[in-house]
Amino acid sequence: MDLYMDPITVNCRKVLAGMKLIGADYNIVKIDYFKGEQKSPAYLKVNPNGSIPAMQDENFVLWESNAIMQYAADKFGAINAYPQDLLTRSDVNRWLLWEAGHWFPSCYTYLVENCVKPLLGAETDQSVLDNEAPNFRKLAAILDDRLSNSRYLCGEAPTIADVAVAAPMHLHAWQKLPLDDFPNLRRWMFEDIENQPWWRETHVQEGFTLPEQAA
Length: 215
Prior knowledge:
Strand content: 5-15%
Distance between the termini: 26 Å
CATH topology of the largest domain: Glutathione S-transferase Yfyf (Class Pi), Chain A, domain 2
CATH class of the largest domain: Mainly Alpha
Number of domains: 2
């Protein structure tokens, strides 16, 4: 199973952490995001959307990060990461869709303004952050409430739902996400997610490097 990715990006880091949680066998085909290789003619034959990640398993090609994790979990029989009983699987699917449709766009606003723009030498637009803040707080409150009743999003063990929802926060310190008022969300991210081996092994460090790259 080939994964076309650059692990510095949110959705690629998500898939890489998900593969480690799942215990999947995979091969990384590096697509350099900052060089724009995701827009190259060769890569567009894999994913015509011109975005990363994408997956190829023999003749089957799949894009969309959450779909890739679902596929891998089923392929490798990772029933703990992606439970098979109807209620729990539906709950996991709910959070995967919520992350893609709501949580990622909100967190991404902070990523662009506080990480990407400074990296490119552009100025942060505080008005953009101020406009997004009420929506972020609404979404963070939804997570905080859910996590007041369970250690992870869908029970007492991590699933691909936790990977998906954590990924847009993966640079939270640089993003300057306003998390102070959400103790359950902070506990989940700082104490539970960030201490998991599959998260530590895919941590993006200063300079946008992975642990094995910096060693």
